Amino acid sequence: MKEYSDKEARILDTAAEMFANKAFHKVLLSDVAHAARVGKGTLYLYFKSKDDLYFAVLFRGFSILVDTLKMYTDQPDLSPTQKMENIIREMSIFMFMKATNAHLLSRVMHFPESGEWQDKRTELWGLIQGVIEEGVEKGEFEDTNPRFTSQYIPSFIRSISIFPPEGLDHEQFCTHACNFVLKALKPDR
Prior knowledge:
mainly alpha
């Protein structure tokens, strides 16, 4: 993951808090700079615009998510089913619990803004594909095209996060998403 200077990290942390609690158009860069204890000019050294800052906040969060998923996929003591459950749970926490992420990421998951976003999406899909392929190899899963499925799963979670059924809480969402995906991957016997 990218290394951030103390000032840049402080700006990103402050902006993340503000974007989570206010509508995008109500977050002013001068307020972010003041709350982060940096000058507005310093903020502009790191970020060209509010959009640039917003995407940087989301990219850092998305990078942390992918790194977290990588920790699960790298654990040899977990079965592919357990790894997939962890992937779905972490993705749903990231998307469902942070509706702002779901709405903005709906734009960037399919329309690359930059090479780093595309690289990170490809890394995410590769992690999921690897778990599916491991599950197929061990007889836990059946899938004729793990590459496609690896892209369906984040899209499914993102869609439900953006348009959740009324009254759906996070635990119900996680349980249903896990059951749905694992049943779809279960081999016919």
